Amino acid sequence: MRTVSSLLNPEWYERYKRISKLNIRSSIYDVTNQCNLRCKGCFFFSSNEHKAASEEKDIEKWAAFIEGEKQRGVNLAILIGGEPTLCLDRVAAFYNRLPTFCATNGLIKVPRDRFPDMMLGISLWGDEEDEKTLRGKDVFSVSSKNYEGDPHVYYLYTLTPNQTGKIARVIRKIRNVGLKVHMQLLSNDEDVAGFNWEPEELEALRFEMDEILDTFPDTVISSKYYHEIITTGKMLGRSFGWQECPSVTQPLDDRRPRPRRLIEFIRWASDLESMHRCCTSKTRDCSTCKDGAAHMSWVMVNKRAHIQTAKDLQNWIEIYEMFAKLYQFLPW
Ligand code: SF4
Ligand code: SF4
Q1: Angle 167-176/139-147 helices, nearest 10 degrees?
Q2: Side-chain half-sphere exposure of 258, counting CA atoms within 13 A
Q3: pLDDT tens digit string along 60-119?
Q4: Among 178, 250, 284, 312, whose Cα sits 20 to 30 Å from the Cα of 278?
Q5: Can you state the angle between helices 199-215 and 167-176, rounded to 10 degrees?
């Protein structure tokens, strides 16, 4: 019988043991329905999730809710929105109680005296031209000044078809301001002309992402298996989509048979009562969903399927390590 220890040499086995202790239980929270940008393709606004619930304004209710989440076993709060930094009291309510990750567009500088080690993922939607097209301004020029050299920050770089062949220049800019970067792919929820993926573009992108990782190993947080999964939507011959997605809100998950999934995962709306279907939006077509975290989680919850060959299991370990680094369960 194939076992983890029979497939791994001592070095890989140590890496395996390090992550198997982590037991990450995440949930996602809409901190606010407001944002200081309106990006074309933002799943939150394009699916009207900002109107799904009215924001809870009472900070005591947020505190009590977060205590309840702790009791539910959550050990990683992923804050999104809208723009969470517009409501720093709510962010603090999480940060003071739970390991917290905050997604932000980086336009507002989070005060480090109040949030000394909170991990921030700054959204970046391509080079200057792409950001102007999709977000109305060159957001990087502001966010990079706010966070230059910050050890608890990385860019979440959304690759678009327009970026093919130009990624290295953006990565170099990120390296030059002393920050890390993780790449994901645009799902083009608002069907912006020229931003849909063609199969041959995805194929070329995979190899460009591999090259980028080889060239900038200290800047890019990634793995080649992740590149394969996200560009092909395939894992061990299976196709990503609704029937396989691990990031569906547990109480709303009526799939049968139920796939392997994130335990107790919920995406909460900002009224602290309503739930959204999944980590993105219910209007997104699952067959074209490119959500990076959902793809990573898909691999992570399918450990058993990767106990086949040493390479499969090493691929699984690398993706788990990558996820753990992005959410500060492991150092860079
Ligand atoms: S900054 Fe983020 S939340 Fe705001 S519109 Fe853009 S993608 Fe949406
Ligand atoms: S849209 Fe994406 S994240 Fe949401 S259920 Fe579908 S596949 Fe999963």
Answers
A1: 30
A2: 13
A3: 999 999 999 999 999 999 999 999 999 999 999 999 999 999 999 999 999 999 999 999
A4: 312
A5: 30
Biggest alpha carbon–alpha carbon distance for the chain: 56
CA of residue 142 to ligand 2 center, whole Å = 31
With beta carbons less than 8 A apart as the criterion, state whether 43 and 158 touch: no
Cβ–Cβ under 8 Å, residues 7 and 310: yes
Q: Could you say which DSSP state residue 246 is in?
A: S
CB atoms within 10 A of CB 251: 10
The residue whose CB lies within 8 Å of the most ligand 2 atoms, and thus the one to mutate among 291, 297, 298, is 291
> Which parts of the chain have pLDDT scores under 70?
none
Separation of CA 245 and ligand 2 centre (Å): 6
CB of residue 35 inside a 6 A radius of ligand 1: yes
Architecture of the CATH domain 24-326: Alpha-Beta Barrel (3.20)
Give the mutation target among 29, 30, 31, 42 for probing the ligand 1 site: most ligand atoms within 8 A of CB.
42
Which is it for strands 26-30 and 76-80: parallel, antiparallel or unpaired? parallel
For the chain, where are the alpha helices, taking DSSP H only? 4-7, 10-20, 43-46, 59-71, 88-95, 128-135, 139-147, 167-176, 199-215, 224-232, 292-300, 310-326
**Cβ of residue 185 lying under 6 Å from some atom of ligand 2:** no
Predicted local confidence at residue 6, as pLDDT: 95
What separation, in Å, do the N-terminal and C-terminal C-alpha atoms of the chain show?
34
Q: How far apart are CA 213 and CA 225, in angstroms?
A: 12
What is the residue extent of each domain of the chain? 24-326
Q: What is the position in ligand 2's atom list of the atom closest to the CA of 241? A: 7
> What predicted TM-score, i.e. pTM, was given to this entire model?
0.97
pLDDT at 328: 97
- Residue carrying structure tokens 């309106």: 38
Q: What is the number of alpha carbons within 13 Å of residue 127 lying toward its C-beta?
A: 14
Beta bridge partners of 224: none
